Amino acid sequence: MNALSWDLQLLNTLAALLLLLSFAMLAQRRIVALVNLLALQGTLLFIATLLLAWRTGDHNLYISAGLTLGLKVIFLPWLLHRLIRRLGVYWDTEPLLNITGTMLVGVLVVIFSFGLAQPISALASTATRNSIGIAVAVILIAFLTMITRRKAMSQVVGFLSMENGLFFGAMSATYGMPMVVELGIALDVLVAMLVLGVFFFQIREQFDSLDLKHFESLKEDQ
Amino acid sequence: MKVFDWIVQLMGIALALTAAPVFLGWVNQCRAWLQNKSAPSILQPYRGIRKLFHKDAVIAENASRLFRLAPYVVFGAMVAAAAVIPSIATRLPITQAADAIALVGLLATARVFVSLAAMDIGTAFGTLGARREMMIGFLAEPALLVVIFVVSLTCATTALPIIAERLSAQSFALNPSLAFTAVAFTMVLLAENARIPVDNPATHLELTMIHEALLLEYSARHLALMEWAAALKLFNYACIGFAVFIPWGIATVHAPMSLAVSVILLGVKLTVAGAGLALVETVSAKLRVFRAPEFLATAFLFAVLGLLVRLLLGA
Predict the structure, then answer these.
(1) Residue A1 has pLDDT above 50, yes or no
(2) Mean pLDDT over residues B168-172, rounded?
(3) Which chain B residue lies closest to A105 (C-alpha atoms)?
(4) Most Cβ neighbours (<10 Å): which of A38, A165, B120, B309?
(5) Contact at CB, B305 and A20, closer than 8 angstroms
(6) Pick from B171, B301, B309: which is nearest to A16 by CB?
(7) Pick the residue with more confidence: B236 or B60?
(8) A4 and B309 in contact by Cβ < 8 A?
(9) Cα gap B123→B111, rounded to integer Å
């Protein structure tokens, strides 16, 4: 019944775990734990990339794996932890929808994205084409995480998780993007994070809080 | 061979009846050790049941016939469930007669009768316990059913013995969907058997209890049957888990040798699972009653994720 080779089995398992982690991030209210989950997601992505590089013998993927390790597992979580310490934001406020409701919406999102990815998977010729659905689901759930949170910090974590999903999608659809694009995105994410880090301090200075609902009012006097 | 099959079936039921209290005793013993207490004997549940059978029953004045009938129905349902689950062998007459969905129905019957009997007297505690039990039940049942659907998808059947046979026949493979559902099943097991994150089986603290509140009005032989049925329920759930997730060693042919191996392996699995259960109960804190839906929604989520991953990846 199961004729898959062991590395493909492992890749499938990693994909499933990525999806699980997305849900864990959706449910997590503590920002520190959220960042740790992000780092874990990066680690899984690193292992998956390494495995895929070994499987296909594609040298570019080794570089991608190295980038993932350096940027998503080590540097960004470290930066986020530092920001959390310096800003003193440890908890997000109660999300807009309660956890159970968000989870159920998340399940619907997964079903939707599996349906969405089916034609793409049918066209792709990679061995990992089945995981495209999972990648789309990870992207959309990260999006959902951003929508349901109020604190700027957790929205940024959602954004980074979305980037992870995109990376995974590219990997499973075409064994990774061209090196130039990948380097560009990595640089983009890095710069975005640095800029956002500065932004956080600006936002807090202006509004005395990182809660984004303050952005909704146009005038200051209210 | 027909007669021999029935003998094995009866042996299986007898094994379940005798092993269930011992399994409960083993879980309690492990838990006491982990909590640095001196443990009661592994046979303590037996002693409790024997003591209760020797007492005179006291029944509330306004109890209806249902109240008296319920322990027998509940116990009967649990024995029937034990007969349906392939715990030591798969090709047994009763085991092949019902599938996993009928099994869930049997467990639900028991739950309905326990709850009705608890409401029958009309005490506040009974009603409270019954309502909580139904709340847990209606959240746990979908999760359990989805768990069964996942394995049914994997094996193309809802019959537990065939599932056990097919899964034990397949070569070892990493199977994320089964791993997810195993987690979901463990959570359902904890909730359904009134174990610690949802209910504390050792407490009589009024505001938090579920299982004890249901049995508050029972005494003597009725209580003994109810307690025995509760032990059987735990045993049954453990055996469902074994049949689905670690089916290796369940006898598919009725040679005395393979049956003996199967019984020994069942003992080993129960020993390990009991210790694991005690560990889970020791490291986790009891949830507030209103957090229980979140716990069970997580179980449901795990099961549904297993299903979706199964559908998408085929693994």
Answers:
(1) no
(2) 75
(3) B301
(4) B309
(5) yes
(6) B309
(7) B236
(8) no
(9) 18
The answer to whether the beta carbons of residues B85 and B111 sit under 8 Å apart is no
Summarised one tens digit per residue, pLDDT across range A3-55 is: 567 788 888 888 889 999 998 888 887 888 888 999 999 999 999 988 888 88
Identify which of B150, B72, B74, B66 has the alpha carbon closest to the alpha carbon of residue B107.
B74
Cβ contact B315–A19 (<8 Å): no
| B25-52 as b/e: b if 16+ CB within 10 A | bbbbbbbbeeeeeebeebebbbebbeeb
Say what the pLDDT of residue B204 is: 67
> Closest chain B residue to A103 measured between Cα atoms?
B301
CA closest to B308 among chain A residues: A111
Q: Is B300 within 8 Å of B146 (Cβ atoms)?
A: yes
Cβ of B301 within 8 Å of Cβ of A107? The answer is: yes
Size (chain B), residues: 315
Q: Give the pLDDT band of residue B1 (cuts 50, 70, 90).
A: low
Instruction: Using the predicted structure, report yes or no on whether residue B73 has a pLDDT greater than 90.
Output: yes
Residue B174 has pLDDT above 80, yes or no: no
Residue B290 gets which letter from DSSP? G
Whether residue B106 contacts residue B139, with contact meaning beta carbons closer than 8 Å, is answered with no
Whether pTM exceeds 0.90:
no
Crossing angle, helix B124-155 and helix B160-169, to 10 degrees?
50
Nearest CA in chain A to B166: A1
The amino acid occupying position A133 is G
Alpha carbons B304 and B298: distance in angstroms, whole number: 10
Q: Residue window 283-312, chain B: list those with CB within 8 Å of chain A.
A: 293-294, 297-298, 301, 304-305, 308-309, 311-312
Write the pLDDT tens digit of every residue in B217-270.
888 888 899 889 999 999 999 999 888 888 887 777 777 788 888 888 888 888
Q: Which amino acid is at A70?
A: G
The Cα–Cα gap between A66 and A140 comes to: 26
Residues in A closer than 8 angstroms to B301, CB to CB, are: 23, 103, 106-107
Interatomic CA distance for residues B201 and B212, integer angstroms: 7
